[in-house]
Design brief:
The protein is mostly helical. It has 3 domains: 11-47, no CATH class; 69-106; 109-141. Helix content is 76%, strand content 0%. The radius of gyration is 38 Å and the shape is rod-shaped.
Length: 141
């Protein structure tokens, strides 16, 4: 059987615990007996215990790091695709450029020249819009 009485508090022990807590808050208090000093050490250890939860901005920080990593991967993939496209365009132009140009000059009535102009216009328009967006972002920052 448990002979300890749950409802009673030892006033002397309570006072030593309180003096230990006050000594943490006011280090110049001094003059503590050894029992109260042990409570001061316990209170100091509890105050410097490691946090059991992540920092407040943990999720935002992780999302930002992941975005930066993804942006790096996407940039590398984009550069690789652009390089592949450029190399293939050079190879195709070297192999078939002469024949293609002769065919374009021979049949201007088929609308081929209009399609080339339309594609060139789309590429130019996309580039201009990209430049405008980039300058707007720089001005907004």
């Amino acid at each position: 059987m448990n002979s300890r009485k749950e409802g009673q508090v030892d006033e002397h022990e309570w006072e030593m615990q309180e003096r230990g807590l006050r000594a943490i808050r006011d280090p110049e208090a001094g003059g503590m007996d050894p029992a109260a000093d042990s409570y001061r050490r316990v209170a100091a250890a509890l105050n410097c215990a490691p946090r059991s939860e992540p920092p407040r901005d943990f999720a935002a920080e992780m999302a930002m790091q992941i975005d930066q990593q993804n942006a790096g991967i996407e940039q590398a993939l984009f550069r690789g695709l652009f390089l592949g496209l450029a190399v293939s365009a050079i190879v195709v132009t070297a192999l078939y450029g002469g024949r293609w140009w002769q065919a374009m000059q021979a049949t201007p009535t088929d609308g081929a020249l209009q399609w080339v102009a339309a594609v060139a216009g789309c590429v130019a328009l996309s580039w201009v819009i990209g430049q405008l967006r980039r300058s707007a972002e720089l001005m907004g920052s």
